[in-house]
Automatic annotation (TrEMBL):
Gene3D superfamilies the UniProt entry points to: 3.30.450.40, Histidine kinase-like ATPase, C-terminal domain, PPM-type phosphatase domain
Organism taxonomic ancestry: Bacteria, Bacillati, Actinomycetota, Actinomycetes, Kitasatosporales
Short name of one Pfam family: HATPase_c_2
Keywords, sorted A to Z: Hydrolase
UniProt source species: Streptomyces hyaluromycini
Entry protein name: SpoIIE family protein phosphatase
Biased amino acid composition, Basic and acidic residues: 111-123
Domain PPM-type phosphatase: 362-579
Segments of skewed composition (Pro residues): 100-109
Amino acid sequence: MTEHPTSYERPQPGVDPAEARGALLRTPQPQVQTQGPQGPQGQGQPQPCPRGGTALPAQARAGETPSGPGTSTSKEHSVNGPEHAQPTSAEPDPHRPRPTPEGIPPQPGAEPERAVSAQERRTGRGLPPGRPMPMRRDGDRLRFVGAATRRIARGIDLDEIVMGLCRATVPTFSDAILVYLRDPLPVGDERPVGPVVLRLRRTDRIPEERDTDGGFLPVPVPEPDPADIGLAALTAELCEVRPGGALNEVLRGVRPVFADSPAARTALPELLGEGNESHVPGAQHAILAPLRGRRRVIGAALFLRRPERLAFEADDLLVAAQLATHSALGIDKAVLYGREAYIADELQRTMLPENLPSATGVRLASRYLPAAETARVGGDWYDAIPLPGSRVALVVGDVMGHSMTSAAIMGQLRTTAQTLAGLDLPPQEVLHHLDEQAQRLGSDRMATCLYAVYDPVSHRITIANAGHPPPVLLHLGGRAEVLRVPAGAPIGVGGVDFEAVELDAPAGATLLLYTDGLVESRLRDVWTGIEQLREKLAATAQLTGPDHPPPLEALCDEVLDMLGPGDRDDDIALLAARFDGIAPSDVAYWFLEPEDAAPGRARRLARRALARWGLEELTDSVELLVSEVVTNAVRYASRPVTLRLLRTDVLRCEVGDDVPQLPRLRQARATDEGGRGLYLVNRLARRWGATRLSTGKVVWFELNR
């Protein structure tokens, strides 16, 4: 079958040449067949049908009588000869206006057509039987499927994909849709354990007052329609798929089925609940489509049309199959993406400290922001490590990259830093050993790190830097300064020395450690960002006055607010430390010679300190525990033993000696003369511990005041 194309230079027969475009866009009016086979201009052949099947008569010219079904026009053959004929499957002429779906030539003998309102196009109400609705042609279905699958594919998470399916099908394809998904959804190759349960994930329907042309119909609220009540009743939340049941067989069949088919009639009560299947419209007004992912069925979709609307056709089953397939594959993709995002979040969370320690003389706050939602892991980290002598180590670092590898290297370096800090090494030595560790991990393992040790007793801080941005110190009066710290080389370069500097850390001051993601982006260089950070800290301090430093948590939030829309090129780690310090009047420190009289002298010194601080109620416990710990120290020490008492929110006692072996708690036998000292410490003290130093060890315990 061939088709005669029409161009603007060659007007159609029976159409005004001045209205070539309008003639195609208007619905042709049917003509009464009065001319016989011997019509004017020798019409003896039928006009070819554009889609095959019965040939349709050509439209008559103005003032002429149309030919009969078996006639044709010889003049038209002289204009549009065989050399211009095109097969039906060929692409349409790009210069030819595309007719609307309603512009279908009428069959011979059909009733005259009338104007169709938007409400009639949407619902089918008021149309004569057999009137074509949208998507009555294969081309319309293909265009709809293409647009719907593109909308579904735009979603990246589960809710977006399911919403895309609902919005794409309602109202173009159906009046309502119910989407059921397995609960829980299987991930990858996981084999579900237990019965298959479907949960109603989302429903959608046509709003009564809305028109598909984009307007709203100003009609009064009518009485409830029985069809509307039926659609609203289909809201069974959970459905258990019985093995070997009718619903299980339909889902295993994969292909969509009409709701009035024998298989669907048996499966719908199981899906919707007993009695609710009566609300489903009959006569092919509902389609049940299984949702099959890459390996298994993950749910089902129920497409519904109102009883007064035209029923689904056999070709609509293919449309439903395409929608179900693309949606199921998209849901599989979203579930896998969600699992990967969960793993990334858990990896990053476990790599960073869950809670910052409660250190003596310092308050801490922290923040971490990933570079983007699509890059949730990175190499930035921060840490706060309690050290002997009430000190605390503050660490912040940045491994190059934003991948799982960067996060894994960051975790190894953080663990190494914690181990080195436990040895009480100087900051520069810690960075040196981190550099060696990075070289053992690989030749391209680069990172920056800043390691600082704060001593609340001396109010001093020692800082060593390995290629990291310098810290900013906010003083109590509101002045913010960038500390002058030697930059050093990044960790992993190898063969370089690191230098440490010791600075004052006055009480009330706040030290801010951060990674370069806070101050560097495509819109600004690192030093411009550091200056903006300094100004932001100074402006925030002015809000609380010169005698009251800003709260740490609010200060961290204010710092992050300086980030603009284009400033999130890297992940950000932020650690803020407020120095409270310990007043000299709250510290008592002595040296004891390793002799037999040392325990008695230690008891007398401790008693006097407690009396001076007004803590006489702790005298008995402190004397007993100090005597036991000092006795154990002088037994093995060869140099003077140190004794220090600290009064903060608790009473802390520290005893140091030059023996590196750490004491261990053990259960003494009844015949043993010793071995009960640490047992008493463990029973009476709030906390206790032992830490190895480069010059020996420190045994400490705490008592509640």
